[in-house]
Amino acid sequence: MKWLLLTVGKPALAYAKAGREEYLGRLAKFAPVEHLTVKTSDKTRESADLLARSEGCLRVVLDQRGHTLSSREFSAKIAQWQEEARDVAFLIGGADGHDQSLLHQADFRWSLGPLTLQHELALVVALEQLYRARTILAGHPYHRD
Questions:
Q1: Could you report the per-residue pLDDT of 32-77, keeping only the tens digit for each?
Q2: Confidence (pTM)
Q3: Which domains does the chain have, with CATH numbers?
Q4: Of 45, 54, 112, 138, whose CB is crowded by the most CB atoms within 10 A?
């Protein structure tokens, strides 16, 4: 099982690049993980590109109207997805979000909270939560309730 994070545009902000590298490195100890980008364009084209790159994967779409989960609830979702033995793709949209066609093809819509987050920051937060979930499942003391 592989974890794939798909975003619109490459991280340009220094903190986002550093955070992405930090958590990709940490996650690699648990499972194969990869971050891929699609070109910045209009919302329809970006969504089509994200869908094409995530073909065959279980699609987790980051959407502020999606399900909010505690870290423990998210780790339980991760365990459930692992049992399905499919690659999981996390789709993070650009400045204008996702097109309805992408939202309809999501296997799960995940919200990091009601705030709108800049997409580079959303990537770092998603990576940290994925790492946190993996440490919870491994019984590692990183997470504290």
A1: 999 999 999 999 999 999 999 999 999 999 999 999 999 999 999 9
A2: 0.94
A3: 3-138 (3.40.1280.10)
A4: 54
